[in-house]
Design goal:
Length: 245
């Protein structure tokens, strides 16, 4: 398949995966999506450059066509970088000895858990209002119930530990046979939540009249999006590898 055709197919795949399920996040007016699952799968199948272009263009098009145009410039750069780095790491880490990969996997999981705990303790401890969240599935919108609750600081530590354990399981246990691939996703995938944190803090939130610090509210959600992408893509990649054996 020629590179131009591959790029077109992969771009369309990312676009569809990004728009098929969108969960609105009121704090920044962004949305949770499943685009990462396509990006990480394509990173395994293609070169870093093709992966980066498909990731950036496909995701930015989804923003433009589903009412999130303000995020499109940031998405283009963030998703390009994420796709490129994940694909590049998959090729580099396949040559690294397993003990070093396992140590890096543990460090990545702990870092992700710490970031969620830290953000939650600073911003979401105490009385918290949980707004109604519209979920858009193929154009059909559903509204969840709005409520308020009190969240103790130790709950965020527990959540951080759970997230770290999930990542350790996904990378080192479930991804045991594909450790370089799983670790590449875990490392490169952190570019996405960090990139959006910076973009929302300095650009999109001020342009929308939202407090810059509200960007931190979406950070745990984007970590969750990365983990969802890791989970789905590992299953797809495992299927592809078995089919080719």
């Amino acid at each position: 398949m020629r590179e131009e055709i591959r790029l077109s197919v992969y771009t369309a795949t990312v676009f569809v995966a990004t728009m098929i399920l969108q969960i609105y996040t009121p704090a920044t007016r962004g949305y949770f999506n499943l685009g990462e699952s396509a990006i990480y799968t394509i990173a395994y199948l293609s070169t870093p450059l093709i992966t980066g272009l498909a990731s950036g263009i496909g995701s930015a098009l989804a923003d433009l066509l589903t009412g999130y145009a303000i995020f499109a410039p940031g998405t283009l750069l963030i998703k390009f970088t994420e796709g490129y780095v994940v694909s590049y790491l998959m090729r580099r880490l396949s040559k690294v000895e397993r003990l070093k990969l396992e140590a890096a996997s543990l460090a990545t999981a702990i870092l992700a858990g710490f970031l969620i705990s830290f953000t939650g303790i600073i911003l979401w401890s105490g009385e918290v209002e949980i707004s109604s969240v519209p979920i858009n599935i193929l154009g059909y919108q559903m509204i969840l119930v709005s409520t308020s609750t009190s969240i103790e600081w130790w709950i965020w530590i527990l959540i951080g530990v759970i997230v770290a354990l999930i990542m350790i399981y996904m990378i080192s246990v479930r991804g045991k046979r594909h450790l370089p691939i799983a670790l590449s996703i875990g490392l490169g995938g952190l570019i996405m939540p960090t990139g959006y944190l910076l973009y929302e803090y300095f650009i999109s939130n001020p342009l929308q009249g939202i407090a810059p610090q509200a960007a931190f509210f979406e950070y745990p959600i984007n970590i969750g999006q990365m983990i969802a992408g890791l989970t789905i893509s590992l299953s797809i990649i495992s299927f592809i590898r078995r089919a080719l054996e």
